[in-house]
Write a structure and sequence with these properties.
By secondary structure, this protein is of the alpha+beta class. The chain has 2 domains: 189 residues; 149 residues, Histidine kinase-like ATPase, C-terminal domain (Heat Shock Protein 90, 2-Layer Sandwich). The protein has 10 helices and 7 strands. A 5-stranded mixed β-sheet has the order 2-4-5-7-6, covered by helices on one side. Strand 6 and strand 7 form a beta hairpin. Helix 2 packs antiparallel against helix 4, helix 3 packs antiparallel against helix 4 and helix 4 packs across helix 5. The chain is elongated, with a radius of gyration of 39 Å. The structure holds adenosine-5'-diphosphate.
Length: 356
């Protein structure tokens, strides 16, 4: 550090501007700063009167002192001049850096605008494609179901098995398309929330009923602790349903057959009802917990192969809760299940406290 300062000072001494009074006002300032020293020494008469101004031999100390005093202005001028040069070069460097930062900012703003445009085009494209896919898929599923139920004539066992596979995959595809459409609607932040009173118990009955077949198919035990309280949420029914549906759907999907899932309701305050959904499934690593709430993100590459899914569910959960002024978090470790904590709204999220 000290060596750097000396080196910087040394190189400033080699710059011509250090000695140029027209380009470096510090030089004149140094000169003025050093001038009082010889003047004062002359006035105070440091030299004994018997001693003349002439050089008195090889070790004339008075003469050396005189020389040092008279050189003071030059010394200060050079030191200040070098400081002026250092300051000037630092100012130039700062201005260069500022110009670079400004250029970087402009570049970032341009890239940001391009990304936003790409996002918009992607969403529009996804929206159009998924709309186009949904209609023929519904027709296909309808015919597959009719064939399975033998309403179009008898089918042999091998055909029946093939139809079951087709039906399962058609269902999976349709749920992914629904996720994409829902994401296009609900993640764009353009939707206006129109809150209504949503009684909790019928809502929970609907969620559980929707997942009952999957719970039974995998011998999973669902415990509601305690039973849902008898109160009403205030919000958008469809979006609250989507939140609960996605979280319970994930708990089922990532559980091993025979496992247990708990849905716990905490103590409500005026605004919020705390809820937890906990499973005993494969769990989520700490690293993955950072990004699973972002859209199209899954814990790792094997998840899609093993469990399917689009990686949109939790993004919809987070957005669906955020519009209601609620949040969601996860506590989990690999192999030890996952617990999603969130709140449900008990007060109109679009009203201010003054309204009530
Ligand atoms: P998807 O379920 O369609 O893959 P989500 O957005 O719902 O997408 O979830 C993102 C990822 O978070 C999942 O792919 C999975 O890796 C992880 N995840 C979500 N819920 C659970 C859970 N209950 N147990 C283990 N992992 C989960």
């Amino acid at each position: 550090m000290a060596l750097d300062v000396v080196r910087e000072f040394g190189s400033a001494l080699l710059v011509a501007d250090t000695y140029n009074p027209r380009r470096n006002s510090y030089l004149l300032f140094g000169l003025a700063w050093g001038l009082p020293v010889p003047l004062l020494s002359g006035i105070l008469g440091l030299r004994p009167p018997a001693h003349g101004l002439a050089f008195q031999g090889p070790v004339d100390l008075w003469w050396l002192l005189d020389l040092t005093l008279w050189l003071h202005p030059v010394f200060f001028a050079v030191v200040f001049g070098a400081l002026g040069t250092i300051r000037h070069s630092k100012t130039v460097r700062i201005q260069e850096l500022l110009a670079e930062v400004r250029a970087d900012n402009d570049r970032l703003a341009r890239v940001n605008a391009e990304l936003q445009e790409l996002d918009r085009v992607r969403d529009e494209f996804l929206g159009n494609v998924t709309h186009e896919l949904r209609t023929p898929l519904v027709t296909l599923r309808g015919y597959v179901d009719m064939l399975r139920q033998q309403r179009l004539g008898p089918v042999v066992d091998a055909q029946q098995r093939a139809l079951e596979v087709m039906a399962a995959n058609g269902k999976r595809l349709q749920s992914q398309i629904e996720d994409l459409l829902s994401a296009q609607r609900n993640l764009s932040n353009h939707t206006q929330l129109e809150p209504v009173q949503v009684p909790l118990r019928p809502l929970m009955d609907e969620v559980v009923a929707r997942h009952r077949p999957a719970l039974e198919a995998r011998s999973l035990r669902l415990e509601l602790l305690p039973e849902p309280p008898d109160l009403s949420l205030v919000g958008d029914r469809e979006r609250l349903l989507e939140v609960l549906h996605n979280l319970l759907g994930n708990a089922i999907k990532f559980s091993e057959p025979g496992g247990r899932i708990q849905l716990r309701f905490g103590e409500p305050d005026e605004d919020l009802l705390p809820v937890e959904i906990e499973d005993e499934g494969c769990g989520i690593s700490l690293d993955a917990q950072d990004h699973i709430f972002e859209r199209f993100r899954q814990a790792d590459g094997s998840i899609r192969r093993r469990y399917g899914g689009s990686g949109l569910g939790l993004a919809l959960v987070r957005a669906g809760l955020a519009v209601h002024g609620c949040s969601v978090s996860v506590r989990s470790s690999l192999g030890h299940g996952a617990c999603f904590r969130f709140q449900l709204p008990l007060r109109d999220p679009t009203s201010t406290p003054m309204d009530t």
